[in-house]
Design brief:
- By secondary structure, the protein is an alpha+beta fold.
- The chain folds into four domains: 4-81 and 162-188 and 351-381, Nucleotidyltransferase, domain 5; 82-160, Dna Ligase, domain 1, CATH 3.30.1490; 193-230 and 294-345, ATPase, nucleotide binding domain (Nucleotidyltransferase, domain 5), CATH 3.30.420.40; 241-290, no CATH class.
- 37% of the residues lie in helices and 33% in strands.
- The protein has a five-stranded mixed beta sheet, sandwiched between helices. The chain has a five-stranded mixed beta sheet with strand order 14-13-12-17-18, with helices on both faces. It has a four-stranded antiparallel beta sheet with strand order 7-10-8-9.
- The radius of gyration is 23 Å and the shape is globular.
Length: 389
């Protein structure tokens, strides 16, 4: 039976809605996609609150029209800016040896859930960094093992209740229900970082329009999570002020430039004015100097955050770069050199959304599809159990 799944994802500059169905030959088929630009948010506040609802409904409507389907239920992606991560060690003593079950895992997770942030946040993911059987052997899959005690380092991913509450009310008022809440950071980690690399630890840098998420992943959980208020828009604004040009022309200039090229004084970049189509030339060295100054400040902050994270991050731990700003030409090479770590871009393999800026939306979709499949399996297992009775 084919299941249709819909997700909505918020970034600091756009809203993405995806509608897909499970496929026999691949993970899913995209039926409808829409990308709607909007003012976004900064410091957890909408920049144009009155326009958010219109942008959300437009995104859903366009995806529905393309898919030829009207959706009732939608999975909500929670942006990194509205996410917190808390790691806790949880311990359960069985008193005598027993075979560990999934129910034991759930009890263990609950034991570590005494989190002071829960007044303003709700737990949306409980993710194991590792399990320890009888305080000795570490594993990622303790189910079926026999032990007298079980402990775990658990990563609790929390969602800001103010953000989720506002979006849920908006959707409910327009006839849509929320199926699940999915962290964009968690979704990217599980969907795009291979398991063997996550087991050794990986760093994700999600460089967005107005903010950057810095994430350390280990096992199936997030070990460290931090947001800094710097993104690609800072470079756009620097070019606006330095070159005395409009935001639209500045953004063109940022996208045309290629960081790291060897330039001479006669090299230039050419951009056009939106309304008049008049061409303007800018000295390439001057443009690169502006971009480099901001990149140095930006990645100095990232480097400091990683060093201050409390995580053990040897030099061989690599960086996975994603987000809209990671499409700037030359930024991967800059990050690799400045952070002194092997750096790779997260580039989705879908034909229509094969840019880093869509990795969070596609990651959310993958986790949503898995949740739907698990629910379907659970339904049929329960139904089979009724007949067996």
């Amino acid at each position: 039976m084919r299941q249709v799944t819909a997700i909505i994802e918020f970034s600091t500059s756009k809203i993405v809605c995806l509608i897909a169905e499970n496929s026999q030959y691949q993970a899913y088929n995209l039926l409808g996609t829409s990308v709607v630009e909007y003012a976004g948010y900064r410091n957890k506040r909408w920049l144009e609150p009155s326009a958010v609802g219109k942008a959300v409904l437009k995104a859903i409507s366009e995806a529905e029209k393309q898919a030829g389907k009207h959706i009732r239920s939608i999975h909500l992606g929670v942006p990194s800016d509205f996410t917190e991560v808390v790691c806790r060690k949880a311990v359960i003593d069985f008193g005598k040896p027993k075979r560990i079950t999934q129910e034991d895992i759930e009890v263990l997770y609950k034991k570590g859930e005494d989190i002071s942030l829960l007044r303003d946040f709700s737990v949306i993911h409980r993710c194991p960094i590792y399990f320890s059987i009888d305080g000795k052997r570490r594993t990622m899959d303790p189910i079926g093992s026999t032990a007298s005690g079980l402990s775990a380092l658990v990563s609790y991913v929390l969602a800001d209740k103010a953000f989720t509450g506002n979006v849920i009310r908006l959707l409910k008022d327009n006839g849509y229900e929320i199926a699940t809440l999915i962290s964009a950071s968690y979704a990217q980690a599980l969907s795009f970082i291979p398991t063997d690399i996550r087991d050794k630890t990986a760093i994700i840098i999600d460089a967005g329009h107005r903010s950057t998420a810095i994430i350390v992943v280990r096992g199936d959980g997030i070990l460290f999570h931090c947001n800094i208020p710097v993104g690609g828009y800072n470079i756009t604004r620097d070019l606006m002020m330095t070159m005395s040009i409009s935001e639209e022309m500045s953004d063109q200039l940022k996208r045309r430039s290629i960081y790291g090229l060897t330039l001479n004084k006669d090299d230039f970049y050419e951009v056009s004015e939106k309304d008049s189509f008049k061409l303007f030339r800018f000295n390439a060295i001057e443009v690169q100097d502006v971009i480099e100054a901001r990149l140095l400040e930006w990645f100095d902050i990232i480097d400091y955050v990683l060093r201050d994270s409390g995580c053990n991050l040897p030099d061989y731990i690599g960086v996975w770069l994603t987000g809209g700003a990671s499409s700037m030409r030359g930024i991967r090479e800059f990050a690799q050199k400045h952070l002194a770590r092997n750096t790779a871009l997260i580039i989705p393999k879908t034909t229509s959304l094969n840019k880093p800026c869509y990795s969070s939306a596609l990651g959310i979709l993958e986790l949503a599809m898995e949740a739907v499949q698990e629910d379907e399996i659970g339904f049929w297992n329960n139904l089979k159990g009724l007949f067996l009775k």
